[in-house]
Structure to design on (259 residues):
């Protein structure tokens, strides 16, 4: 299913136009997203930040086709995600999207190599040999390919998950708190790999994080509050991200005090 995109979103790796997500009804109704529009540039690393309940994970899940939307349009490349059938969504996620989660989500009975190649095997596809070698060397796992997850450190397991997300050359990779379960050194290794995949290989990464240091690896940071985009920062540093978060927290506290 394809459709002409607006000037704002044409050429974007992923985009949302006037996106609303409502949970529940009546007094229990929650407006998780309220009219969000954003275009995530191809070949760029975008971080999405915001306080708990701001809608950042909901936005990522809607962009990735993991959650339905109440109103608005989501697209990945030139494919309109909104309204796709279950079969269409499955094909989209299989062929055009990579996922990296906080919990690694590796199968314990498979080796690192088997875990990396699993999505391609399910899709009946073979990896491009040159690209596979590039991914394996970039994540630095060549000597760990025959090891099972229980034989790997947390950082190594997450690098396996990163390689699995990238080996199919997806249109966009969505990473949900990818360093949340890692120590600072392992987290830095994973972030450096994601940064390198963008800089050297043109991959598109969209990462939800609460960590200002993790966000500093991105090209752009989008800030959400109360289900809306309220700010953004280009070429961020950790200090600049922290400063912006403090300003948003102060604004939220002031608004709450006046209600």
């Amino acid at each position: 299913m394809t459709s002409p995109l607006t000037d704002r979103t044409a050429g974007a790796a992923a985009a949302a136009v006037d996106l609303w997500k409502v949970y529940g009804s009546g007094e229990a109704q929650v407006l998780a997203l309220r009219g969000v529009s954003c275009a995530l540039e191809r070949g760029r690393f975008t971080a999405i930040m915001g306080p708990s309940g701001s809608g950042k994970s909901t936005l990522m899940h809607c962009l990735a086709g993991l959650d339905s939307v109440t109103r608005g349009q989501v697209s990945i490349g030139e494919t309109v995600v909104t309204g796709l059938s279950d079969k269409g969504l499955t094909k989209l996620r299989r062929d055009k999207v990579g996922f990296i989660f906080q919990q690694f989500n590796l199968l314990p009975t498979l080796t690192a190599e088997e875990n990396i190649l699993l999505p391609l095997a399910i899709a009946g596809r073979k990896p491009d040999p040159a690209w596979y070698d590039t991914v394996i060397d970039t994540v630095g796992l060549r000597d760990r390919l025959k090891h099972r997850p229980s034989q790997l450190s947390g950082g190594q397991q997450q690098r396996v998950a990163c390689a699995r997300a990238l080996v199919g050359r997806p249109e966009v990779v969505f990473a949900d708190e990818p360093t949340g379960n890692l120590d600072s050194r392992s987290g830095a290794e994973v972030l450096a790999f994601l940064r390198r995949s963008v800089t050297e290989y043109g991959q598109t990464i969209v990462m939800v994080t609460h960590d200002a240091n993790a966000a500093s690896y991105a090209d752009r940071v989008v800030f959400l509050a109360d289900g809306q985009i309220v700010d953004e920062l280009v070429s961020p540093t950790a200090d600049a991200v922290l400063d912006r978060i403090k300003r948003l927290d102060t604004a939220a506290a002031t608004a709450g005090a006046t209600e």
